[in-house]
């Protein structure tokens, strides 16, 4: 197995930056309730805080998910690069204005010969990264709560919720989602990852984290 060197082209960096900003704006509007009232509220209360919060939580969760796919693909000798889907990014912003959000910022495209196990590990890397990020955001939530910082506590809560959701959702075994590829490789690995991720996500929703 030949291992390629991890690198990012200027086009890829541009696509990652555009996707990050678009997701930050879209999720800021979504969490403000969507619609014109949300936009007016954000503008009157200050754009920086809500957008920064979304960039640090939803934006980081989505983009590191994709970067993880690239890192593992390159580890297995693939030529891999992230490409933003500008149409879907536009849809994310528009849907947030309507009070819901549909976010699919793009995907990592790779080529080269792979075993089923390698395909499975590349797919699993994204959701696994989201679980790792959820673990990182948990102490942020605790610290923010203890020191009485609403911004830090909300960042921890929202980062935890979004990343758990991304991990569980992307492991659904349907269509182009990662879960279908992981299930095709190993039913044991799929079940061992998906079931706890789903239960944790449901628990986070019940607790009202992120809102």
UniProtKB/TrEMBL annotation:
One BP annotation, GO: proteolysis
Secretion signal, residue range per the UniProt entry: none
Highest rank taxon of the organism: Archaea
GO molecular function annotations of the record: metallopeptidase activity
Transmembrane parts of this sequence: 16-35, 47-68, 88-108, 120-147, 159-177, 189-209
InterPro entries for the chain: Metallopeptidase_M50B
Keyword list, A-Z: Hydrolase, Membrane, Metalloprotease, Protease, Transmembrane, Transmembrane helix
Family annotation (PANTHER family): ZINC METALLOPROTEASE MJ0611-RELATED, ZINC METALLOPROTEASE YWHC-RELATED
Protein name per the record: Metalloprotease
